[in-house]
Amino acid sequence: MAWIRFLGALLAVFMTIAPLVSNADAHGDAKHDRGTIGEKCIKDTDWMRRNHMNMLMEKRHVTVREGVRVPAESLLNCKTCHTSREKFCDKCHSYVGVQPDCFECHNYPK
Amino acid sequence: MNMDRRSVLGLGGVVAASAMIAPGIHLIAAPERTEASGQSRWAMLVDVNKCDSDCTACTTACRQENNVPTFDDPQRDIHWIRKVELKDKKGKRPSVSLPVLCNHCEHPPCVDVCPTEASFIRKDGIVLVDKHRCIGCRYCMIACPYKARSLVYHATELSENGNADVPIRGKGVVEKCTFCVHLVDQGKKPACVDACQKDGNGAMIFGDLNDGQSEISKRVHEIRTQTMRADLGLNPAVHYQGL
After folding, report:
1. Between A68, A69, A76, which is nearest B165 by CB?
2. Chain B residues with CB-CB distance to A under 8 A?
3. What is the dihedral of CA A22, A86, B171, B118, to 10 degrees?
4. Which domain holds residue B130?
5. How many C-beta atoms surround the C-beta of residue B36 within 10 A?
6. Taking the CB of residue A7, how many other CB atoms lie within 10 A of it?
7. How many domains, chain B?
8. Cross-chain CB nearest to A60 (options B30, B132, B165)
9. Contact assignment for B132 to A64 by CB distance below 8 Å
10. What is the enclosing helix (H) or strand (E) of B206?
11. What DSSP designation does B134 have?
12. Is residue B34 part of a domain?
């Protein structure tokens, strides 16, 4: 029965490693070139991945309607670190099938 | 530490020289966050006597600054600011030329009629269109007594020498003069006023009416100025002198 025990142990090891490996596949920045320079964004990366759309909407509202301007967090400033719109924005958006129209008017070179 | 007079003066000289030769070093940092203030009331004063009928410095500067496109069809052309010739019907007075732009009324009828609340008045009195919300119904264009608003009939593109800091606009939204709100928020003057003072005849001035020390506030209180269609009671922010 030693081989069954060995198989069980192997399965357990595999199940522990598998999510880590697939996680690295999906989010590992080393494999995906996102055309990004700089250490970190205005908030941490995981938060930005999940919430950037709500944050941009909120910022849009307070900037247009209340005149709140924070130059360091301006949309005009995104392109200084996220140098490629194609690699950084469009890649993910086309994968999940969303079509934000920010850059039909705001300038963000491809 | 004891320093004699000579070394103190020398140190002062070094500090002054370094401030002059190192313009990259800012002694006063740029503000991190600015917000429209309810204490301000931005306004413009146009001295009609100084405005020359051949001069188009303001309209050209506006198009350049705000990426206002030109279309072939003059009926559908977008103008945030336009030059108008006023003629006396009886011919007793000479005709005058003046720029007409959004008057940024205190009681703007365009804001009253907007069904989506895209048109709004900011705390500092600047009337704006939130183009994210505008559905292009054009009620505001009909409500505006100054014909200050235009509908974007065609898709536009940023031209090669366009201003990348100002967004272009989508097809089917209404737009108008913003008093160059992006410049005003940085403490600068609108592009038309800047151009009028540099390249034109210095007919336009811009400032805060609520600030008693500002040039515009002094002049509006001292000189007889008029607003357009004052009978409507909208209290516009664009004042004219010598109309």
Report:
1. A76
2. 30, 32-36, 120, 122-124, 128, 130-132, 158, 164-165, 167-170, 181, 185
3. 60
4. 42-241
5. 20
6. 10
7. 1
8. B132
9. yes
10. strand B204-208
11. -
12. no
Six-digit token string for B48: 């009609």
Residue among B122, B119, B108, B114 at smallest CA distance from B233: B108
Task: Quote the CA–CA distance of B225 and B227 in Å, as a whole number.
Answer: 7
Q: Is A70 on the interface with B (CB under 8 A)?
A: yes
Q: Taking CB atoms and an 8 Å limit, are B33 and A101 in contact across chains?
A: no
pLDDT tens digit string along B79-108?
999 999 999 888 888 889 999 999 999 999
Task: Give the ipTM of the model, two decimals please.
Answer: 0.79
Encoded tokens for B109: 């009828």
Q: Is residue B4 part of a domain?
A: no
Interface check for A71 against chain B (CB to CB < 8 A): the answer is yes
Q: Report residue A40's pLDDT band, with 50, 70 and 90 as the boundaries.
A: confident
A101 at interface of B, judged by CB pairs closer than 8 A: yes
Distance CA B65, CA B191 (A): 7
User: Is A68's CB within 8 Å of B165's CB?
Assistant: no
In chain A, whose CA is at the least distance from the CA of B30? A71
Minimal CA separation from A47 to chain B, in Å: 22
| CATH number, domain containing residue B57 | 3.30.70.20
Any domain includes B142: yes
Dist CA B181 CA B193 (whole Å): 13
DSSP class of residue B30? P
For residue B36, the chain A residues in CB contact (below 8 A) are 66-68
User: pLDDT tens, B31-85?
Assistant: 788 999 999 999 999 999 999 999 999 999 999 999 999 888 988 999 999 999 9
Indicate whether B1 belongs to any domain. Answer: no
